[in-house]
Design goal:
The protein has 223 residues and is an alpha/beta fold. The chain has one domain: Decaprenyl diphosphate synthase-like (Undecaprenyl pyrophosphate synthetase). Helix content is 43%, strand content 14%. The protein is built from six helices and five strands. Strands 1-3-2 form a three-stranded parallel beta sheet, sandwiched between helices. α3 links the parallel β2 and β3. α1 packs across α6 and α2 runs parallel beside α3.
């Protein structure tokens, strides 16, 4: 799921991100209600580091405060927190709080909530290529054996199931460097609704649309 505030200046964007925490809660509740076991939210992209320093600091503070405020709810609803991305880019306070809540919720089994933080799919793929190349150089992998599974095993998402549905809010029709490899066979759902206004019923609309689609994975459409 890609969040899109749609604001025109940093003050409105920061307010939009704050309002977006309600959208996160609604999506989590919706997932639990209908039995979805995994959901990934695009929280902060690699490109977001280029935003004004004050806005970046505000977003990091918002993430820390949200994690602290919601950890009891995560435990109550048996939600396991996970994170993908270059987490070493985060400041110490944000990194430590994220790891703290990940550790505290590690035993939960109702829903796995993955936050894509300091994440970029092109960077993720580049990182995987470097790791695989290093193993080839050290004779740990033969280049002839490199296949889809080996690539998957070197991505941040290696422990997550395949993506079934990607929801893009805010009226944008692009992936914004999000899970480019992983959404190869995913269904895409686009909505004009801005992320801060995205509610549980909107989430259910996306799920209903997904349920009506025929997923062929390259096969001929059945008559």
């Amino acid at each position: 799921m890609v969040t899109e505030g749609g604001q025109k200046n940093w003050k409105k964007r920061v307010f939009g991100h704050e309002s977006g925490t309600k959208s996160v809660k609604d999506c989590i509740e919706g997932c639990i209600e209908i039995g979805i076991k995994n959901v990934t939210l695009y929280v902060f992209s690699m490109e977001n580091w280029k935003r004004p320093k004050f806005e970046v600091n505000s977003l990091m503070k918002l993430l820390v405060n949200s994690l602290e405020a919601e950890k009891s709810n995560l435990m109550e609803n048996r939600v396991k927190l996970n994170a993908i991305g270059n987490l070493n880019n985060l400041n110490k306070v944000c990194y430590n709080k994220l790891q703290e809540v990940i550790d505290q919720t590690s035993i939960n089994d109702q829903l796995t909530l993955t936050l894509a933080v300091s994440y970029g799919s092109k960077q993720e793929i580049g990182r995987a290529i470097k790791k695989i190349s290093h193993k080839v150089k050290n004779n740990l992998i033969s280049y002839q054996n490199i296949d889809e599974k080996i690539i998957n095993d070197h991505l941040y998402t290696r422990n997550l199931p395949p993506v079934d549905l990607l929801i893009r809010t805010g009226g944008e029709f692009r992936l914004s460097n999000f899970l480019l490899w992983q959404v190869a066979y995913a269904e895409l759902y686009f909505t004009e609704i801005l992320w801060p206004d995205f509610r549980k019923n909107d989430f259910f609309d996306a799920i209903f649309s997904f349920q009506k689609r025929e997923r062929r994975f390259g096969k001929v459409k059945q008559e």
